Amino acid sequence: MNIAIIGTGYVGLVTGACLAESGNSVICIDNDEQKIAGLRAGTVPFHEPLLDAVVLQAGRQGNLQFTTRLDEGTRLADIVFLALGTPTGSDGNADIGPLLQCAHELAEILDHDCLVVVKSTVPPGTCEDIQALFDTMLGRRAAGCAVKVASNPEFLAEGSAVTDFRLPARIVVGTSDDADAETLKQLYAPFDPDGTRLIEMNLRSAEFAKYACNAMLAARISLINELANIAGPLGADIGPVCQVLKSDPRIGPRYLEPGAGYGGSCLPKDLRALIRMAGDKGETAPMLHSIEEVNRRQVGLVFNAIEKYFWGRFQGRCVAVWGLAFKAGTDDIRESPSLALIRALLDAGAQVRAYDPIAEPAVESSFTHPGLVLADSAEQACLDADVLVVMTEWEEFMTPDFRWLASTLRSPAIFDARNLYQDKDLKSLGLRHYQPGRTFPA
Ligand code: NAD
What we know:
single chain; alpha/beta; Rossmann fold; six-stranded parallel sheet; 17 helices; binds nicotinamide-adenine-dinucleotide; NAD binding; NAD(P)-bd_dom_sf; UDP-Glc/GDP-Man_DH_C
């Protein structure tokens, strides 16, 4: 099929590259000229495992092209995906203004039948609004073509986006008629070899499914964090408790790591949007509020532990921070707990020496502070530092040289916000060890 993707970000580019890989002819469109120029030259604008190779290969095969022009990109499209960002708006709900503006521009130029598929995360009712917009504008123009709108929210996770797209746990398709669902079934057939993954529903249910999924994931993270916070003072060790939880098939093994709270470009903003939508419908949604509240507190707990360790005085203190990305495998720093902690440390008067294997350029271009130094290596970040905080679970942080850390850190302590290390490995070396869910040794 001929596919156009509008919005060549994390979701749009992965979608475009994987659909091109499966034999479709894909044009990715973005209004960021620099991004498109880079992609034409073979440069993927963000870090995502496997994506460079898929983009390169699809480009070589002639299946994947890039443009800034909406008319050129959509001229032959059977399906047009909308994959623009939907960040938090001023009222807390998703800002779908740019998406609607884009649909408007599309309705001014489309002159052939096609299916417009909303991949962005949008409040229920958005696809119906976009359908009404097409119906009105195409009618007014007497365009002589029919444009249908479908919902196909994306569930990939940054850091494993290509694998997630190639082998999805489920493909959600929301349509207002069977023919549109059939078109999407054909498109996704290579990604659903056993025919069990594609779940059909109406437009609003598909739109809501994405918010429901993110609310459930955020709930698990906040609940395990809250349990960890209770376990510590009760003298229980959350590590083996997590093992018990994960072994229960009714609970399942994932998203049960106590840590510094969730971040990134999806969970926080989608929770906010859902709370706003609930409020608009007169629902108080107490659980959703609690999920957010627990998450907000979590970085504060790491900060409090460091503050306590320094007896409340940050002046003259230097904190090494390992990890800037909101999680391993990505350079995405949107709503990263690490940056929230760094801001709090800098505001309190500490110096920060931070290191991230991938995300430093993203920080350099969006956040500078005279008290923040970005180091070239994990070791370099620790030179002249009093303590170390580990905020992202990158592979290279998993087995550090504790002996070297014990002799290098000026007030040797590791604030292990991701629960990566075993107490016993550190204690014998004189390294103090803070973990969520465990009382900080006096
Ligand atoms: P992103 O910010 O990485 O990408 C959006 C892209 O759209 C940018 O490249 C931007 O330049 C481009 N754009 C904006 N306005 C445009 C316009 N008028 N014409 C052409 N291009 C335009 O966003 P993302 O992370 O890919 O997320 C996209 C959507 O997918 C959001 O709704 C998000 O909630 C959802 N989503 C994201 C993820 C994720 O892990 N990032 C996962 C699932 C769903």
